Predict the 3D structure of the following.
Amino acid sequence: MAELNTGDGGGGKDKKVRSKKQNSKVDLTAMVDLAFLLITFFMLTTTLSKPQSMSLGLPDKDDKTDTNIKVDENRTMTILLGKDNKLVRYVGLLATPVAGGAPKDFVYGKEGIRKELLSRKQSVLAYSTAKGKPKNGMIVIIKPSKKSNYRNLVDILDEMAIVEVPTYAIVNEFTPEEQKLLEGK
């Protein structure tokens, strides 16, 4: 508990009585102890937020695998990221797109590319089961251009996680046709 110390104000037997001047001191030791106890308590009982990260499977640097892997065109979707938040998708090959796969511009978000990814995922599932193939999922190829910004790539990776696309790849090689498509020519 804090105590208040007062000094002797003076005034003996024969002297005039003057008003007493009191020197007051407050002992704050107990308050400092309490503050440190509270800080220690909150530090030990608080849980820190865990960083949220996305796991990416990256190839080995020394891996000499075959880069020409044949994939069913009906299962693939290519997303091109351009400057000024431009987003273009096509299904299959650009030269010979599959039904409903002609190049089309989209916006980011729930009513844009996410809606398209969900509908394409359903059609790929229906295609796989109709052909008697095992339930193979959709494959998305993401191609960010040099003029696209980092946020666009993160946004499209978030969409892959939300829609739960099982297989996607980030590729930085553009064909001349894809470059013209992004530039709007």
